[in-house]
Amino acid sequence: MTIMSERRSQLASGETSPSLLALPLVTASIDFLLAAAAAGVAAVGRESLGFVNPVPEVDLGAGAMILPIGWVLVLTAMGTYHRTVLGAGTEEYRRVLGASLGTAGLIGVGSYLAHYELSRGFFLLLFGLGTPMLLLGRFAVRRGVHAARRRGRMRHRVLIVGSRGHVDEIVGVIRREAWLGYDVVGALTPASDGASETDIGLPVVGDVEQVTELVASASIDVVFFAGGAVESATQLRRVVWDLENSPVQVVVAPSVTDISSERVRIRPTGGLPLMHIEPPRWIKASRWGKRAFDMVSSAVLLVMLLPIMAFTAVQVKRFDGGPVLFRQTRIGRNGREFSCLKFRTMVVDAEALLSRLEHARENGGLFKMKDDPRITSPGRWLRRFSLDELPQLLNVLRGDMSLVGPRPPLPKEVATYQPDALRRLHVRPGLTGLWQVSGRSDLSWDETVRLDLYYVDNWSMMQDLSILARTVNAVLGSRGAY
Length: 482
What we know:
- About 50% of the residues lie in helices and about 10% in strands.
- By secondary structure, the chain is an alpha/beta fold.
- It has three domains: about 5-15 and about 155-255, Rossmann fold (3-Layer(aba) Sandwich), CATH 3.40.50; about 20-150, no CATH class; about 285-475, no CATH class.
- The chain has a five-stranded parallel β-sheet, with helices on both faces. It has a two-stranded antiparallel ribbon with strand order 6-7.
- The radius of gyration is 28 Å and the shape is globular.
- About 30% of the residues are buried.
């Protein structure tokens, strides 16, 4: 038996996770219970909204029981339980909101046409409470699914078809984003390739002509078609035809990475789906709206956090009598130097001791090490909860930094930057950023640069707000803080 035959026989031993198959049913059950709870609260609480209910009281009885079922049916009709919608992206929330508004409209119109005097208080409570409850329920389910996937459960079995280079790029993204729940079990490369595995060690189990056979024999859930997978659009269309009777998702992964969905538009032209990519958005990140938000927010935060900052300053001063603040030259927008402020967390002569510790470098590009002997006792808890960075709110207020942005680099780091990394300097550095909420010092240098470049190219105000919200969880979890 050849190596490739052995690998195909090993693939055939796998199967789709039962919990994955049950996810739509579980989600629908939770939706029904939440809708029923909202109906129960609305039925009891409608009397408190009597000012909007001048009509005589009507017995809701059966109506309050039937409405949750109808709501779930509308959610089903809107495709909110489809496997391509559940668990990722904003499309799920958009459909849930649309289905809820549609249900409200159907009930309103139906009551009017049937001359049914539905309590207005009940109607307002039902959808005023029920819609947010459904959205929060979907969020909770999504968090649970992502956690389960990180623990190795509820996984999709994936085959990737394409040239070895393109396959490895897709595998890199999938392994980085473990919450997606994709287990790549093998690769299919062009028949002319002849390699037994890709450059990162993923086994090659066949070529594109064997997709249908492997999907049927190995219980494959998803097939990715990457660059170099097929020789023509006609060949891809025929492969899709061959798979049309299989319960498998077909995903075409273009050779485009680290571009947000807001910058991508699919426009079919003559049957050819053309992908239009908008220019990078770093220019928008420098406009007055973001700056005004930074100024107002940093001023409010300084006032709110003043007692904590005063207490921290006293603790730093009492420890060894040295200066409270540590000032360090950093590089800001367009390469401009500025004095970055932090509460001092190291001994006074920390910079002089640095040369002795360079051999312990754990992260290319910037010096970070666990159990750094230069850190003081109060400095450890300041770093654990990122309290040492609070003085940077003054940097934000005076325009050196932003609340959200790339990590502020040292001049010697910038001197070693490759051309790609220099794009980080297009925007103001941030007090927090994607690097902060994605692991901080646990990240490799390349991963830190990748996250910063993604932020620069795909900036949006909604992304800033999302990062600020996630920062609270990252700080409390203290992951990568040292």
